[in-house]
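re: the backbone from monday

yeah here it is again, tokenized this time
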């Protein structure tokens, strides 16, 4: 699987050196849909699972192969399904979610490897506004003092995509990206610090996750 992913993502970039650079479009509207997989910290990865990440951006060609734009991002995480709390003689699953809404600047470099295929190398630099929902009112000493259920942080997201033009005005592709949100996970905010399987984990690095999914680009050419 790793070898296949390497071929899909990196072979076109190598092959592109043998192809003449083409112009993509004057403007584009880009959209991504991904499934996030938490990488760090260990405490954050033990607490939550990724549900989805999506973003949209409007981009302008600054040259034949360089784009700049602005966009919006939404990401959702659900507590790990193993987290449960005791209620009399029953064990009830948690339903705590972490949602982030962000705005970002996007910078992209485009490189064609065929008449219809091209690689895009992008960097998103943004600011994320995050909120924990459905937090259980746990009052144990382990969760005090309570952490904030809303927090904001800057983030960076490098992105690599393989794209294919299926019509002169639209392309589709597969993407791989890595998000680093510059905030340390606080297990007291979602009231998870009483779980030994969480509190015993390392929590030394920022909250980060890997994304794999699909994208589309609406290609808008300037009228002559």
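seq for it, each position gets an aa:
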């Amino acid at each position: 699987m790793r070898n296949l992913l390497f071929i899909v993502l990196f072979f076109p970039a190598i092959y592109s050196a043998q192809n003449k650079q083409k112009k993509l479009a004057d403007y584009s509207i880009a959209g991504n849909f991904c499934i996030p997989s938490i990488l760090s910290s260990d405490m954050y990865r033990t607490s939550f699972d990724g549900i989805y990440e999506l973003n949209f951006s409007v981009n302008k060609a600054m040259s034949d192969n360089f784009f700049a734009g602005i966009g919006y991002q939404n990401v959702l995480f659900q507590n790990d399904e193993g987290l449960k709390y005791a209620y009399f003689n029953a064990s009830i699953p948690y339903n705590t979610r972490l949602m982030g809404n962000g705005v970002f600047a996007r910078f992209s470099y485009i490189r064609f490897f065929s008449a219809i295929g091209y690689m895009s190398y992008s960097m998103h630099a943004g600011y994320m506004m995050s909120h924990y929902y459905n937090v259980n009112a746990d009052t144990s000493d382990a969760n005090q003092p309570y952490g904030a259920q809303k927090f904001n942080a800057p983030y960076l997201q490098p992105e690599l995509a393989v794209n294919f033009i299926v019509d002169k005005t639209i392309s589709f592709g597969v993407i791989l990206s890595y998000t680093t949100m510059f905030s340390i996970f606080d297990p007291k905010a979602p009231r998870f610090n009483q779980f030994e399987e969480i509190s015993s984990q390392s929590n030394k690095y920022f909250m980060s996750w890997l994304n794999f999914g699909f994208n589309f680009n609406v290609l808008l050419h300037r009228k002559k």
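Helices lie at 2-15, 42-47, 196-199. The chain has a mean pLDDT of 88.
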